[in-house]
Amino acid sequence: MTDALPARRLLLVHAHPDDEVTGTGATMAHYVASGAHVTLVTCTLGEEGEIHVPALSRLAAGEADQLGGYRLVELERACAALGVTDVRLLGGAGRYRDSGMMGLPTNDHPRAFWQADVDEAAAHLVQIMQEIQPQIMITYDENGFYGHPDHIQAHRVAMRAAELAGPAAPEKIYWTAMPLSVLREGMAAFRELDDNPFADVEKVEDLPFGHGDDEIAARLDGTDYYQQKVAAMRAHATQIPDNSWLYGIAGDFGGEFMGVEYFRLVKGERGPGEGPHNWESDLFSGLGADRPVIADAAVR
């Protein structure tokens, strides 16, 4: 199949439906529009998520336990808004269950992703890597960006798969990130919102997901696609309510905050950049010629 794919191939590994939008939606839309092949792997169906649509409240895990199937439909609609057509569920739909927030009894569910054997889960991802042979992979850092067990596990599985995939492994691996300088600007903007999600935060250094500007490798400007990102967010209606602060940011600041996404580079050589921090503006920067297709990339 790989020889029929575009020369540029990007793989993203996320924990739940809706995670793909908030941190990487503009990046996904940007690369789809540029002609790259974008593959999204989602590790769970998000069965333990909150439900912000009252009419659907009985889908919750403690009642009908049907939220996962509904969120799968939301995921498909969100990806359609972004233009992404290659959407996979790790190990197949329902193989791994949403673990819930850290420390909850749901962490111990026998199918919880948090309980998954990392090598077994990574083997499912290796199969996708062998098929797609992506040059770039995006996932979370060791803390899962903010400490959710499924995000942490997605990180572990993605990084282990990259170790096991042999010649099919991505050449560059990025972790989602947020520069402290951008967080400071954002905090000032949030103070003007009625629904300020960080009202109790005194300084940005106290947040679990900020990084120094020198740790950031790439700034992806997807402002031309932020409306698609907003449309994808609205597809996840059970998780992102109409009055969410995210829509406040989208309405007040447009693509300035919603359309620009940042990444740390943890594998591969950093390519040429620009601006005061010399950040890459293209995740494929520095790769040179398009990666040749390996006819038999199976791990031996």
Provide a descriptive summary of the structure in words.
Its EC number is 3.5.1.103. Belongs to the MshB deacetylase family. Pfam families: PIG-L. Catalyzes the deacetylation of 1D-myo-inositol 2-acetamido-2-deoxy-alpha-D-glucopyranoside (GlcNAc-Ins) in the mycothiol biosynthesis pathway. The protein is of the alpha/beta class. Helix content is 32%, strand content 14%. The chain has one domain: Rossmann fold (3-Layer(aba) Sandwich), CATH 3.40.50. It is built from 8 helices and 8 strands. Strand 4, helix 4 (149-164) and strand 5 form a beta-alpha-beta unit. Helix 2 runs antiparallel to helix 6 (226-235). The longest helix has 16 residues, at 67-82.
Can you lay out the helices and strands and say which pair or pack?
Elements: E1 9-14, H1 19-33, E2 37-42, H2 67-82, E3 86-89, H3 118-132, E4 136-139, H4 149-164, E5 172-179, H5 180-190, E6 210-211, E7 218-221, H6 226-235, H7 245-253, H8 255-258, E8 260-267
Parallel strand pairs: 1-2, 1-4, 2-3, 4-5, 5-6
Antiparallel strand pairs: 5-8, 7-8
CATH H-level name... which superfamily?
LmbE-like
How many domains? The number is: 1
Task: Report the mean per-residue pLDDT as an integer.
Answer: 90
Low-confidence stretches: none
Largest sheet: 8 strands, mixed
> Helices and strands: which structural class?
alpha/beta
CATH class group: Alpha Beta
Helix content: 25-40%
SSE order: EHEHEHEHEHEEHHHE
CATH topology: Rossmann fold
Through-space gap between termini: 20 Å
Approximately how much beta-strand content do the residues carry?
A: 5-15%
The gyration radius over C-alpha positions equals 19 Å
Q: Find the count of extended strands (DSSP E, 2+ residues).
A: 8
Question: What would CATH call the architecture?
Answer: 3-Layer(aba) Sandwich
- Counting DSSP H or I runs of 4 or more residues, the number of helices is 8
Per the principal axes of the C-alpha atoms, what is the gross shape?
globular
